[in-house]
Amino acid sequence: MLQSQFHPLKTNASTGELYLPLEYHPNIILTTPRLSDIPKLPDLLNDPGVCIWLRGPPYPYEIEHSEEWVTKLVEETEEILQELKDAEGNDTLKLVGGSPVRCIREIKEDGTDVLIGDIHLRRCETMELAPGMKNDSESWEDSPKLLGVANMRRENGDPEILWSVGYFLATSHSGQGIMTSAFKAILEQWAIPRMGIRRMIGETYAENFGSQRVLEKNGFVFREIVKEHLEAKGKKHDICVFDLNVSL
Question: Which positions of the chain have pLDDT values less than 50?
Fold first, then answer.
């Protein structure tokens, strides 16, 4: 019997939405993005305990930012889902370029759920932190950019693709192992088998010990600290770099 191209995702019997449950947190699920997340995201990303660790989102995070971002995520997710739908009936499971589930939600006693975080996998567009990349050659300015272009052009499922991960969790739910479990679920059940991910790097601020533990508990190995690698919100940050190499 052929497996569904959406395997191992589950389907909500009431809404038809796809989701991925967490092994050790039965009240937490990973789902697809929703347009209804737009008004909820600013409160999460403006929380001082969250935004202090994020370099990407603008601060303060306004509803206009949320509208643009969530709309983009929904469109990207629909493209992945359409790819999977088109592949139904094939003998082998299709390798895709992303995860359709990424939004971390807590299920309440009445069956409703609340957005509490996000975890996303993406190809490295710049390769200055790629393994073996050192600032000791004349081609330093160009080679990371060229490698990044090559990385983005590789076919889905290519084991040489270098991936990175980003995540955040509401401060109300930190310290409970939720992010570690969420990353474990998406890594083991989707990223490796359904995206063909074999190489990843993880980057955290040097002082973000919680994020570092999430990486280490999911098999990442510390490589180095890069001094003053980036500036975010008016402050320069040292970056801890971790590597994951998957062997099957």
Answer: 137
